[in-house]
Each structure stands twice: as structure tokens, then as C-alpha cells.
């Protein structure tokens, strides 16, 4: 018998470092395009914000990030004419990353609060505001350490009630993730296949089937009415190809012994020819024998 062995996998563990995992740190330099609200008295409604951020992964997916940036290319129209407006933005945001840690794309959504300090275009001095920040974007990790980011953020000024926008890109490094157990799948040793049970060959059985094949007096031609019985025997032999048969011919006691012997052999051969030539039984499986008067039928 053939046994089929189904084994369960045995997992052995080893320790490996995975960037982006819980406890990892990200540092990033970024450049944002800043779009101001129309209520601001700026000569241009947009400028640039350049800065850097540092983040800490609380879990494999949640990062807390602190960033600082300074405004450039903002100009205001005041009583003294056009002048360069300086300012900065400090914010603290939580980012939730989608997908699995590792090389590849990880979209994210973010939310948090910021403190903006920016020069006043008209009166001099500085305006300070508290901002509620919401954003979305994606990071692409070229490796588990190096990534590039693109995103957009809405900045709601809680103090002034207006909304500003910024869109930007950044490049960063991710390192120092906590170690995690990495499963190594080990194939189980195959179970021995049981020895096949010894095959006991059964001794062939001899079955005697009497066919009532009719012949005319002193003839060896098979009569049409006997073909049905011969076909039944042929069907059996074809269904069980491991079987063989011997066709025995007989005569009555009329006539000499030698003549009846020859006649019985011719009759047995005639039935054999029908089995082989008409019903397709292999010739090597059909023997014939004549018994003449030695086993008379009448």
C-alpha cells in the first residue's frame, strides 16, 4: 500500500532587525509649497517652507513626528512698501501608515497641531497662531531605511478662522527599529513509508462452463443458433483478460474411434475460431481439445 504523509510545519525563530517597526526613528528633510489665505496681506499668495522633522514609531503603523520649518519667499505690501516676510512653523503630528513595513509604498494620513510665528505685513512685529493640521500622502521605501515622501496638508488657523494649504516632498532615513522574531519555516523530516503488504497470488481457479453448441450430423460447422452462447463466453473472457479457456469437443458413439476423434477436434477448433476471429479473444488464451468417443455426449 502507498502511504501519504502530511506533516505540519515546525517554525524556528531567530532575531532580526526591521526598520519601520515599533521603536524605529525617522529623520527627514522636507520642502513645502505654502499657499496663504487671501486675508493675509501678502504680495504673493504663496511661498516656501524648508525644514526637517524627526519621528518615533509607537507601533508598526503609528508614528509621532515633530517638525520645524522656516518660511522663504513671502513678501508683504505694507506702508513702507514691499518687504520680505520671515516666519517659522513648528508642529507635532501623528501619522498612521497603511500597508506592511518593509520596502515599497506606504500611504498615510496625519493629524496634529502647530504653532506658526510669521511677520505682520502691515504693522510690523509678528503674528502667532495655533493651527490644526490634517494631511495625507505616501512614502516610498527604496529599502527598509531610505524613503521619499510626498503629501498635502490643510492648516486651519484656530485664532483667525482661515484655512491655508501646503504641499511638499521629503527624503528621509528610518532606523533603529526594535528586534522582532522572524519565523523560519523548516520542512519536517518525512515519515517512513510503510512497507507494502506482501502480495499473495491467488491460485488460479478452474471453472467448467458447458456450451450447448449444436452441429449437424457428421459436420464441424457451428450452427447459427449457437453463436449466442459462444458470444457470452467471449464477453466474459474480454472482461477478464487474465483468464484463458480450453474448448473441448465431443461426439456420440456412432462410428469408429479414430473418425470420432478427428471429428471432435474439428468441432473444438471451429468453436475456437469463432471466439478468436469473430469476437476478438486472443488466440493465445483459447486452446482446443477433442475427446471423440472417450467422453461421448450420447
Strand content: over 45%
Straight-line distance between termini? 54 Å
Instruction: Please state the second-level CATH architecture of the largest domain.
Output: Beta Barrel
Instruction: Identify low-pLDDT runs.
Output: 1-17
Residues in helices, as a percent range: 10-25%
Shape: rod-shaped
Domain OmpA-like: 202-298
Membrane topology: Multi-pass membrane protein
Organism: Phytopseudomonas flavescens
Main location: membrane
Q: What does this molecule look like?
A:
The chain has 298 residues and is mainly β. It has two domains: 13-182, Porin (Beta Barrel); 224-294, 2-Layer Sandwich (60s Ribosomal Protein L30, Chain: A), CATH 3.30.1330. Helices cover 12% and strands 46% of the residues. It is built from two helices and 14 strands. An eight-stranded antiparallel beta barrel has the order 2-3-4-7-8-9-10-11. It has a two-stranded antiparallel sheet with strand order 1-12. A hairpin with a 6-residue loop joins strand 8 and strand 9 (126-141). The longest helix is centred in the C-terminal third of the chain and has 22 residues, at 257-278.
Amino acid at each position: 500500500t502507498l502511504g501519504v504523509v502530511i506533516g505540519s510545519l515546525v517554525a524556528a525563530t531567530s532575531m532580526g532587525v526591521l526598520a519601520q517597526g515599533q521603536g524605529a526613528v525617522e529623520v527627514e528633510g522636507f520642502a513645502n509649497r505654502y499657499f496663504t489665505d487671501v486675508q493675509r496681506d501678502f504680495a504673493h499668495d504663496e511661498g516656501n517652507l524648508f525644514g526637517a522633522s524627526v519621528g518615533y514609531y509607537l507601533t508598526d503603523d503609528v508614528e509621532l513626528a515633530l517638525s520645524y520649518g522656516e518660511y522663504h519667499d513671502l513678501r508683504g505690501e505694507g506702508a513702507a512698501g514691499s518687504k520680505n516676510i520671515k516666519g517659522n512653523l513648528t508642529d507635532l503630528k501623528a501619522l498612521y501608515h497603511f500597508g506592511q513595513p518593509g520596502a515599497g509604498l506606504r500611504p498615510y494620513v496625519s493629524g496634529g497641531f502647530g504653532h506658526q510665528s510669521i511677520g505682520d505685513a502691515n504693522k510690523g512685529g509678528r503674528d502667532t497662531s495655533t493651527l490644526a493640521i490634517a494631511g495625507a500622502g505616501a512614502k516610498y521605501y527604496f529599502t527598509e531605511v531610505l524613503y521619499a515622501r510626498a503629501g498635502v496638508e490643510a492648516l486651519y488657523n484656530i485664532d483667525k478662522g482661515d484655512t491655508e494649504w501646503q504641499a511638499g516632498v521629503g527624503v528621509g532615513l528610518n532606523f533603529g527599529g526594535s528586534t522582532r522574531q522572524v519565523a523560519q519555516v523548516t520542512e519536517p523530516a518525512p515519515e517512513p513509508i510503510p512497507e507494502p503488504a506482501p502480495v499473495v497470488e491467488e491460485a488460479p481457479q478452474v471453472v467448467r462452463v458447458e456450451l450447448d453448441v449444436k452441429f449437424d450430423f457428421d459436420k464441424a460447422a457451428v450452427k447459427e443458433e449457437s453463436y449466442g452462447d459462444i458470444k457470452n463466453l467471449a464477453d466474459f473472457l474480454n472482461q477478464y483478460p487474465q483468464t484463458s479457456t480450453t474448448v473441448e469437443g465431443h461426439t456420440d458413439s456412432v462410428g469408429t474411434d479414430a473418425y470420432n476423434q478427428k471429428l471432435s477436434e474439428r468441432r473444438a477448433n471451429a468453436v475456437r475460431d469463432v471466439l478468436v476471429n469473430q469476437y476478438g479473444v486472443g488466440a493465445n488464451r483459447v486452446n482446443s481439445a477433442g475427446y471423440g468417443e472417450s467422453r461421448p455426449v450420447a
